[in-house]
Predict the 3D structure of the following.
Amino acid sequence: MTKLELSIAWRYLRSRRGSRLLSLISVIAIGGVIVGVSALIVIIGVMNGLQSDLREKILIGSPDLRVLTYGEDMSMSGWPKIEDRVRHMKPAVVAVSPFVHGQAIVNGGHQYSEGAFFMGIEPDEPSLNPVTRIRTTARAGNFMFGTTDGKRRGVVLGNRLAERLNVTPGIDTVTMYSAGNGKVDPVTGMPVAHIERFEVTGIFETGMYEYDNSYVFMALPSAQALAQLGNSVTGLEVRTRTREEAPIVAHAIEDTLGFPYRTEDWQQQNSPLFHALKLEKFGMTFILLLIVLVAAFNIVSTLTMVVTDKTREIGILRAMGMPAKSIRRIFFAQGIVIGIVGTATGLIIGLAASLMIDRYKLIALDPSVYFIDHLPVTTQLLDVAAIVVASLLIAALATLYPARQAARLFPVEAIRHE
């Protein structure tokens, strides 16, 4: 593209004296690109941020994968041998730990009681190779579950649950009622409740509403007693080298152990949530891409009006010997300028808005509904690059029709045009 062609293209984008229409339309066309690009960058960043933030918070207490069993009682007997077999599947398996999971009613010594999930895990020890990061979230006390009598009969509660029960670590105790292994009273037909009393030894806070609001952690033997599992456990938690390897390792464990053992990786454990986020990200991307397409139509209308307004000038240029391909390049350059200016400005605005929303937590959320207290934004380079390329490509394609129409004008007819 020659300097003359660029100069003419820039001149055509500007308004001439006495007529502000074309310059206004050019600004509108550029504004459409700005809005589309900046909105895409912010929304895709929000979708990525939600996925990343929720994944990190969920995996604070959830392992990369779990080894479970089929059956009504969903318990695993003889688990030490299974744990040993899984542990030896190195280097893919980094850590293995048994766990007990169940539901109970918790009472803090008052009339008010709460339904909660209890999780039995191995106490925090220097020699322990932990599977999850839940032990790092202790806000008061620790996950050693040690009590004043020298036993491990303590529990660690989520901060929201502790606030509702009005309990304090080292001072209060809680009573937990569990239906146990599903035993039913033959007279009443009601589940037989199993009651255990524990000392509150700690409070944790993950930032994940589900954990903080309704989870109680305790030592593995205490959870086995509360769930009336004897020496059995619910299953095994497994940490892999990377989260991306979890599905592959899960299939390998299933093939090694065989029936009745099964596995669930971290995506399967929370599949409804992650599938909903992926679908929402796709939907929002498609919807906002329509804004860029609307901007493309603005570019088409702008260049078409330029062609109409500059018909005589185009005819003079053709009569002076300018070839049709140069005319096409002039209008192509106009569309590219609109696309580049709009995309660059939208890129700056989108990145700045994303940074401010994330850093200053400008959009607060109700954690009881959305699991998180603010709208996170994670900007990924690949997504930004795809948006920029798509915007420039759409702007370039929008120039094809008006450029073709301008190049097809006959010099004599164009000069006589009024």
